[in-house]
Amino acid sequence: MTSGTTSAIPDLTLNDGTTIPQLGFGVFQVPPAETEKVTLDAFEAGYRHIDTAQMYGNEKGVGAALASSGLARDEVYLTTKLNNAFHRPDDARRTFEQSLADLGTDHVDLFLIHWPLPTRYDGDFVSTWNTLIEFAADGRARSIGVSNFTPEHLARLAAETSVVPAVNQIEVHPYFGNEATRAAGAAAGILTEAWSPIAQGAVLDDPTVVAIAERVGRTPSQVVLRWHVQRGDIVFPKTVTPARMRENLALFDFELGADDVAAITALDRGEKGRRGPDPETFDWIPA
Ligand code: NDP
User: What is the pLDDT of residues 131-166, one digit of tens each?
Assistant: First the structure.
């Protein structure tokens, strides 16, 4: 296993004092049977931060890659997330243990509530959050956070619990800046993790992005990912293609000017730019 270019990836400090590599690798929609190979390819390219979830069905593949990579556990930053079906405290406890077993580890670096599900469980994501606080207290989750929480959901956790989430993982890309939620996080010391950072490819042929890419001599994907990095968000683009893994990692030897950052930010389409579900109404629970 080569060390890749990880030394170039900055670490960001979370509000609990731990650090997280700003760039990682996401495995949403990587088929379970291919996940070990894809994750090993990502390690080979130099990624040392993997973002998975119970609902992706591929934690075992990530665990197998970790085991066969030859990397020490503390060389890899591992995030997973709670299945929407398991918000009740006893279910969360049981399934968290299962995640650790499937990942082949005694701890994760970050564990998230995947969706707030305000129309499920009597709207009670607070009990779920208090259960994650247990996992942090006993060290099995070094950090805990949330995903797809709105400013109102964050405010409720602040009012009713004792621990501020380390991160909020939300949809952010040039067509959906999600600025109010980013700002609410920043005001509370919560780092934003930007999911679907290249809008699953949809922003890569945008004329503004393409023009900047041509001028700075980088690819559209690199320009968009660099925009996220300069805004201070954490990103973990997904690709099953090794050449794209390397491309998406090569972000730390160039910089966008303030005008280019502003031009990409101006592509925001507000709610119309959202590609994923609205967290206020999303209520899907896997069978
Ligand atoms: P991304 O924005 O990362 O886009 C992935 C798509 O872009 C794939 O089709 C990939 O193709 C393609 N792609 C990647 N790199 C390039 C490139 N350099 N040039 C051209 N095409 C490229 O989408 P995701 O939705 O996967 O988001 C990333 C991660 O965010 C997920 O894997 C997951 O970890 C997280 N996430 C979290 C959610 C949440 O609710 N918390 C929701 C959605 C995502 P190919 O693979 O074929 O190469």
Answer: 999 999 999 999 999 999 999 999 999 999 999 999
- Closest Cα to atom 38, ligand 1: which residue? 195
Ligand 1 neighbours, Cβ below 6 Å, are: 26-29, 51, 114, 147-148, 169, 195-201, 204, 221, 236-241, 244, 247-248, 276
266 domain-assigned? no
Q: Relative to the CA of 219, which ligand 1 atom is closest?
A: 18
Domain count, the chain: 1
User: What SS3 string covers 160-202?
Assistant: HCCCCCCEEEEECECCECCHHHHHHHHHHCCEEEEECCCHHHC
Q: Residue 92 sits in a domain of what CATH number?
A: 3.20.20.100
Q: Is residue 269 part of a domain?
A: no
* pTM exceeding the 0.85 threshold for the entire prediction: yes
47 is catalytic: no
